[in-house]
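Suppose you are handed a protein chain with no further information: no name, no annotation, nothing but its sequence. What can you learn? This example shows the usual starting point.
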Amino acid sequence: MFKTLIVGVSVTGQDSILEPLCFPEQPADSSSAPSLQRPGAELLVCLFCSESVPLLQKDVLLKHLLLEHKMVIADVKLVADLPKYMLYWKGRFLEQPVTDFCSVIKTNSTGPVEKQEDYFLLCDVLPEDRILREKLQQKRLEEVLEQQQKERDDISFHRLCMFCSEEFTGNRSSLLNHMAREHSFSIGLPDNIVYCDEFLDTLQSKLDNLQCLYCEKTFRDKTTLKDHMRKKAHRRINANNCEYDRFYVINYLELGKTWEEVQSEDDRELVDDEDDDWSDWQAHPVFAVCLFCDHQSETMDQIYKHMKEAHGFDLHKLRTELNLRFYQQVKLVNFIRRQVHQSRCYGCQEKFDSRATALRHIMAEGHVMKLPDMSTWDQPQYYFPTYENDALLCTLSDSDEGESDETNRGEDVPVIAEDISNLRALKQTSVLSQLLKNRSSSS
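A reasonable first move is to predict its three-dimensional structure. Written in structure tokens, the prediction is:
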């Protein structure tokens, strides 16, 4: 069920964890189709009369077409340039009868003739309509690529970082790379973005309105919002929000297709052998794992209930009694997991030959809810998870969300993982090893 930990033995005989365990990955959710209509001041004209409305009020005109002229346009959201589309068909309907182009739908066809009505459907089943839609799509794509190239070449870019107010001038990539590197906030590679200024304005407006960019929840002040986005790792945009689709070039590539469909087609082109069929492959979801046994549950409520009923461990009670802040809960969970892995009772620190023996001792001696002095586990080393995909860490109560930066300053410690790609070299060059050698030679 778990990956094997890579461990080393220190001079004191205690285990030193060099690489965390890993739980199974959780499947990603799919997103909805893009919406690429760019809001503007252009007018939409009626196909049959002088009625017109701004593009932003297109639903008003579509309703007018339905009620007054019995006309329905199929898949309006897929039309790349709706004003030009409407002007084209307004001219064609002046040249030829509407029945030459549209499908006729008769309502109440089995009823009396006087109660029957004819409705007209304009759709891309008509070759002329299909060609028009494709031409508009191609022209829109050319405009987007031209705009993107201008932004790539632009050296007059000037903007402040949304998170630290550092000033950036020159090329937009300097700001986007800074936010990704320094603040773990990435909206993608600069060359994948178009209408970048408008995109950043949209994000800044949401932050100014105290709205989280990922979960889109609104908070009472900037401090609370900042703490929430940091602790919940919400420094990213919501991929399911179609408002952002128009800022990514991939959404303009093919008419009526989402970026996921475009990518999936690219993947299918790489599959040459029909025998290489992955259709029956299923990903295993991430389950929360008990602190004391291998029991797994699909929800946090179930795992908390299991630990309380099966082992007498009440994490919520400890949090309340000890008034634990968010990062203190993180360190406590990591401390208990590490002690259990090392076959040690976390309550009295007694070491045992096996994990099973240690767990029997914890239960028999009533040490389940017995914690050592806070100074023992409230240490920076326990910011590092024993299991890197520990679902329990992702759902800890964020009760201190409203506290100020001054209150949480001691907890706001950045953690940078050490490179463990070459463990042998790591052991040989370890600063700790050098200190231990110096200490042994001096004694």
